[in-house]
Automatic annotation (TrEMBL):
GO MF annotation list: hydrolase activity; metal ion binding
Name by which UniProt lists this protein: GTP cyclohydrolase 1 type 2 homolog
InterPro entries registered for this protein in UniProt: DUF34/NIF3, DUF34/NIF3_bac, DUF34/NIF3_sf, N-reg_PII/ATP_PRibTrfase_C
Keywords from the named record: Hydrolase, Metal-binding
Binding positions for a divalent metal cation per the UniProt entry: H65, H66, D104, H330, E334
Metal-binding is among the record's keywords: yes
GO CC terms of this entry: cytoplasm
Taxonomy, superkingdom: Bacteria
Keyword Mitochondrion: no
Family: Belongs to the GTP cyclohydrolase I type 2/NIF3 family.
């Protein structure tokens, strides 16, 4: 049986906590990371109905998108909704974990899924919130072994530049060393200075993957003691952020884009700013409440912006700025993550040969149109 921490590691491999925004609250909200888990429930929001269902279904861990505890608590009262849910969760040994803006920002997360669902091309981040620092790794390899070392590093994540992987630069030279007493040299003899043909392999890597890359390299490198260097570089790393902006395959009218949004996101009603007959091609989007990014979408040259929870004055801002606006609702622009996250966990858990079950519980949109 695996621990809750193991599940957390899987989630944070996909959506690291470092990607979350400063004001956010993500991570384990209730429970112990060392507790064992047999059943996981994936939800958008932890509600009394979710906790009740989890308690009656033998769930050990609830994974929510919206933070279960967002603002600091002054008390845990059984006669108030949040306090009652905390008490019920503890009573039934149910842990609660939340992945919020880190799941919005992550590559392949909510915003990328939305862009993919709507058929956008040439997709970029709308507002950068984090940039992965880069490191240069240099390792010296005896001639004839450079390929296996280079490939192991590339397979571990080194050498990614744009749409290319396994990028490296290789220089031949002479390495010198003298094995001392107690050594077990791959080449040469103790007490004798050796001159060996070596290859200097240089590659670049995200700072977060350096340890994994070094471990992969050391496993296949033939030397007892490996000479390698790690340098900081000023190159721009992979950009992460809120929202996405891209292009439709062909321009459409705003009215046609509304039809596409309703069909793809399975939403019956939209709130729209803009003339239905105007042509749109460059589309910005942000899952959930994205009104704060309207100016970013305008500055990026978007013809239309798709998000949820638009306020009156935000709609007026869009109208005055000349950008079309589609409010598809908070729920409808985020529910896409539920099945994706559940399937991701099932796949990762299967690779661990775990029998933990994963279920989606979708209560639907709390807002009804009448």
């Amino acid at each position: 049986m695996i621990s809750i921490q193991t599940v957390i590691n899987l989630i944070e491999k996909f959506a690291p906590k470092k990607l979350s925004l400063e004001w956010d609250n993500v991570g384990l909200m209730v429970g112990a990371s060392s507790a064992k888990v047999k059943k996981i429930l994936v939800v958008l929001t932890v509600t009394p109905g979710v906790v009740e269902y989890a308690a009656s279904s033998g769930v050990d861990l609830i994974i929510s998108h919206h933070p279960f505890i967002f603002k600091p608590l002054n008390s845990v009262r059984q006669d108030l909704p949040v306090g009652k849910m905390i008490i019920e969760a503890i009573k039934h040994d149910i842990a609660i974990y939340s992945a919020h803006t880190n799941l919005d920002v992550a590559k392949g997360g909510i915003n990328d899924l939305l862009a993919q669902k709507l058929g956008l091309e040439k997709v970029e981040v709308l507002e950068k919130t984090f940039e992965e620092p880069l490191k240069k790794i240099v390792v010296y390899v005896p001639k004839g072994y450079e390929e296996v070392v280079r490939d192991s590093m590339g397979d571990a994540g080194a050498g990614h530049i744009g749409n290319y992987s396994h990028c490296s630069f290789n220089i031949s030279g002479i390495g010198t060393f003298k094995p001392l007493e107690g050594s077990n040299p791959f080449l040469g003899r103790q007490g004798e200075l050796e001159r060996v043909e070596e290859v200097r392999v240089e590659t670049i890597a995200p700072a977060s993957r350096v340890k994994k890359i070094l471990n992969a390299m050391l496993k296949v490198h033939p030397y007892e003691e490996v000479a390698y260097d790690i340098y900081p570089v000023e190159n721009e790393g992979c950009a992460f952020g809120l929202g996405r902006i891209g292009y439709l395959k062909t321009p459409v009218t705003l009215g046609e884009l509304c039809r596409i949004v309703k069909q793809k996101l399975e939403v019956e009603f939209l709130r729209v700013v803009g003339e239905p007959n105007r042509k749109v091609s460059k589309i910005a989007l942000c899952g959930g409440a994205g009104g704060s990014l309207i100016s970013k979408a305008v500055f990026a040259g978007a013809d239309a912006y798709i998000t949820g929870d638009i306020k009156y004055h935000e709609a007026e801002e869009a109208k005055a700025s000349g950008i079309a606006l589609i409010d598809a609702g908070h729920y409808s622009t985020e529910k896409i993550i539920l099945n994706f996250l559940a399937e991701y966990l099932k796949k990762e858990l299967a690779e661990l040969e775990s029998d933990v079950s994963v279920e989606v519980y979708d209560e639907g949109d709390p807002i009804k149109i009448v």
